[in-house]
Specification:
The protein has 8 helices and 10 strands. The chain is α+β, with helices and mostly antiparallel strands.
Length: 293
């Protein structure tokens, strides 16, 4: 059997194991969460209004602008190099909002583990180096030294590639950003999850239906069942949630969902919480996914 691990895996493994990054990481993350508490600003940065994380969309603008300038350096742009300068300018202007949305997402990586915090810190630092190189490249070009500007741009592209690799690892290997319930919909058929006599009104419990964790609640207006894993960062709503009338709030990061249908009422989550049909049959509680019309 061939070894399919990336040749860069030892580097990423070393970053995930870099315990000295914990102290600054925890401090910075706590400060960010303090500044960006639940509310309109946090929702805007998280992409709640967009339906998915905003940060990846903005990274395309930064990377696309910087790399396009470097490509023109290779294949040739206009005679005066104005196109490259403008593209680098767009990348620089786009960097701040991109970084802010990324820091906001990274600060919410808890309780996923130190590996995410450590890799995220290096990802941010590497992006900062790339920004510095491209900024220096633009300065050199405008001072009439296009050769130096191109060399600095090539360096910036290389560092930007390394930062992109770490960003991809955070998203696709460590799961920062995707809907935490996307690959675990729940049972399509009625599935028993417990006895009605064991439920206490107003006290949610975690049950399991076909390996899917379910938030089950006996409420004043009946039974409610939602996916127990918060779509934002996977916290358990039954143990980390607070009830507020017809709403459950995840205490990890403040996302709020309607008990009846799981609709998202406040971020930083970006998607609704999956809900289940629930019924009592001969004293047994059963749940299933809503039938699709």
């Amino acid at each position: 059997m061939s070894n399919t691990k990336s040749p860069l895996s030892p580097v990423i493994d070393a970053l995930e194991a870099a315990a000295p990054l914990d102290a600054p990481g925890k401090k910075i993350a706590a400060q960010v969460r303090g500044l960006l508490g639940p509310g309109a600003l946090k929702d805007g940065l998280s992409g709640t209004w967009l339906g998915h994380a905003l940060h990846p969309l903005l990274t395309d603008l930064v990377i696309g602008s910087f790399v396009s300038a470097t490509v023109l350096d290779v294949i040739g742009g206009d005679d005066r190099g104005r196109a490259q300068e403008r593209l680098i300018g767009v990348g620089i202007a786009s960097y701040a909002p991109t970084a802010i949305t990324g820091i906001s997402d990274w600060a919410d990586s808890e309780p996923a583990g130190d590996g995410i915090r450590r890799v995220g810190l290096v990802h941010a630092a590497t992006n900062s180096v790339a920004l510095s190189l491209y900024t220096a490249s633009l300065v050199a070009r405008r001072k009439g030294n296009p050769g130096r500007g191109k060399l600095l741009g090539f360096g910036g592209a290389a560092v930007l590639g390394a930062a992109g690799l770490l960003g991809g690892h955070l998203s696709y290997a460590q799961g920062v950003g995707p809907n935490q319930t996307a690959f675990d919909e729940g049972p399509a058929d009625w599935t028993p999850v417990g006895e009605a006599a064991d439920l206490v009104e107003g006290q949610p419990v975690r049950v399991v239906a076909d390996e899917t964790p379910v938030f089950l609640l006996k409420h004043a207006d009946g039974l409610h069942a939602l996916h127990d894993r918060c779509s934002h960062r996977g916290c358990s709503l039954s143990s980390k949630g607070t009830l507020d009338g017809e709403v459950v709030e995840c205490n990890c990061h403040g996302s709020r969902f309607n008990l009846h249908d799981g609709s998202l009422l406040r971020g930083p989550a970006t998607t609704d919480q999956p809900s289940f049909e629930v019924r009592e049959s001969a004293g047994t509680i059963e749940v299933r996914l809503p039938e699709r019309s």
